Amino acid sequence: MVPRLKAFAKSCSDYAPSKAPVFYNPVMEFNRDIAVLALQAYQKTIEREISVCEPLASCGARGVRFAVEVQGIRKVVMNDINEKAFVIAKHNAELNNVEAKITVKNEDANLLLNKYSAPRRRFDAIDVDPFGSPVRYVDSAIRALRDHGLIALTATDMAPLCGVHPKACIRKYGGKPLRTEYCHELAVRLLAGCLATMAAKHEMGTHIVFSHNAEHYVRIYATIEYGAKKADEALKNMGYVLHCFECFHRESLNGLHTVERSGKCSECESKLSIAGPLWLGKLSDARFCDLMEDEVRRRKLRQADRIGKMIALIKEEVDAPIGYYVIDKLCDALNLPVPSVKKVAEKLGKNGFAATLTHFNSKALRSNAPSSEVQRSLKEAVRESK
Ligand SMILES: C[S@@+](CC[C@H](N)C(=O)[O-])C[C@H]1O[C@@H](n2cnc3c(N)ncnc32)[C@H](O)[C@@H]1O
Ligand SMILES: [Zn+2]
Fold first, then answer.
1. In angstroms, what is the span from residue 131 Cα to ligand 1's centroid?
2. pLDDT tier at 261, thresholds 50, 70, 90
3. What is the C-alpha separation between 375 and 385, in angstroms, rounded?
4. Of all atoms in ligand 1, which is nearest to the CA of residue 62?
5. Cα–ligand 1 centroid distance for 34 (angstroms)
C-alpha cells in the first residue's frame, strides 16, 4: 500500500513523492531492485540467515521486499519517524504475509540504531535510504553492524557532492568536490571516503562491494570488517584527484597528507584543481557483481534489462582508471562534431590504449591514455565519421 501520488500533486510539474503525507517514490523501484539483489548476493557470501534493518523505511516498500524476495532473511526491522508511515509499513508487512519476520518501529533512526549497537543485538545488514545525505546516520549504522556486516547508503544531495555547493560537501563528507564532467564518480568516491573514514574511527575497515549512480542519487554498498589493521588497510585507499580544467588531464594522488597546494598540470602547466580526500580504491567488487548478475537471471524484475546492462558495465569498469572522459564535453571544447563513443574507443584501442565504457554516462569512456591522446583519437574518429 502506497500513497496515491497524483492526489497530492498541485500541478503537473509537482514532484509528488515529497508532497504526500507518507513518502513513496515509484522511480526508486530500480534502486530497491538493486538493493534486493545486493542483499541476496551478500547473504549468499556469508551462507547463513541474516538480520536486516531499514532505519528510514517510510511505508516499507524496501523492507517488505527484503522479507519477501530475499532468501535467508531471519528478521527485518523497519523504522520511520513519521507515524503515518509506521502505520502503513505495519499494514504492508501484514498485507504481504511477512509480519512474523518484520518488526516495525516508530522512532528517530539514530535512537533506534543505538539501541541495537550492543554486541549481540547488531544487524548483518543496514540499508540507509534517507532524504538528502545519509551522513547523519552513518556513525550509528556502523555501530549497529556486526563484523563483516553490509551497509548500504543512498545520497540524493547531488548539488553538494557534485561541487555546486562545495562548502556543504566539505562540511558533511569531509572532502572537497569538483565540478568536472566525471563529478558523479567523484560523488561516489566522496561518499565512500566518508564511510571509510567514519568506520576507521571505530577501528573497522571498509570494502566497497558495489556502487552506482542513477537518476538523482548515488548509492554504495560496503562490507565492514572489525579491526584496527583492517581500518588502516582501508585508509590506504584514500587520496586526492587532481584535475586540469584547461586540458582535461586528471591524475590521482594516494595518501591523506601528501597534497602540494600548487600542483601544475604535467600536460599543459596550468594550475591543477583538487578534489578530496576521497576514496581512490575500487568502486565495486567483480565477484559481488557476478553474484548480483546470477540473481537478476533468477528473478523476474520489470527492469531486468536495464539492471543487467548496468551491472555488466560496472563490472567492466572495476579496474579502469579514475575519471572518465565525456565525449560531448570534449567535442564542445574542441569545437568538433560528436562521434560515437564506440568509435573513439576503437581509435584508442588502435593507438595502443585501453578504453572502457562507464555506467555513469553513456557518452563517456575511461582510458589509460593521457588526455592529449584521447583528444587525438577523438579527432581521428571525427575525421573518419565524416
Ligand atoms: C527517502 S524516504 C525512505 C524511502 C524508503 N527507504 C524506500 O525505499 O521507499 C526517507 C524517510 O525517512 C524518514 N525520516 C526522516 N527523518 C527521520 C529520522 N530522524 N528518523 C527516522 N525516520 C526519518 C521520513 O519520514 C521518510 O519516510
Ligand atoms: Zn592541463
1. 7
2. low
3. 15
4. 8
5. 18
Picking from 50, 30, 31, the residue whose alpha carbon sits closest to that of residue 41 is 50
Residue 341, amino acid = V
DSSP H or E segment with residue 315: helix 304-316
pLDDT score at 161: 98
Distance, in Å, from the CA atom of 184 to the CA atom of 212, rounded to the nearest integer, reads 9
**Cα dihedral across residues 350, 329, 336, 247: positive or negative:** negative
Q: Looking at ligand 1, which atom is closest to the CA of residue 35?
A: 8
Distance of CA 75 to the CA centre of its chain: 25
Q: Is the pTM of this model over 0.90?
A: yes
What are the residues whose beta carbons fall under 8 Å from the beta carbon of 229, sequence distance 6 or more?
205
Distance of CA 222 from the midpoint of ligand 1 (Å): 21
Q: Which atom of ligand 1 is nearest to the CA of 131?
A: 1
Q: What is the pLDDT of residues 154-193, one digit of tens each?
A: 999 999 999 999 999 999 999 999 999 999 999 999 999 9
Pairing between β-strand 325-326 and β-strand 50-54 as defined by DSSP bridges: unpaired
What radius of gyration, in Å, describes the C-alpha atoms of the chain? 22
Distance CA 31, CA 27 (A): 8
DSSP secondary structure letters along 214-280: ETTEEEEEEEEEESHHHHHHHHTTEEEEEE-TTT--EEEEESSS---TT-B-TTT-PBPEEEEEEE-
- pLDDT value for 207: 98
Q: Write the DSSP assignment of 12-48 as a string of letters.
A: TT--GGGTSSS---GGGHHHHHHHHHHHHHHHHHHTS
Which set of grid coordinates corresponds to residue 186? Answer: 567523484
**Residue 121 confidence (pLDDT) above 90:** yes
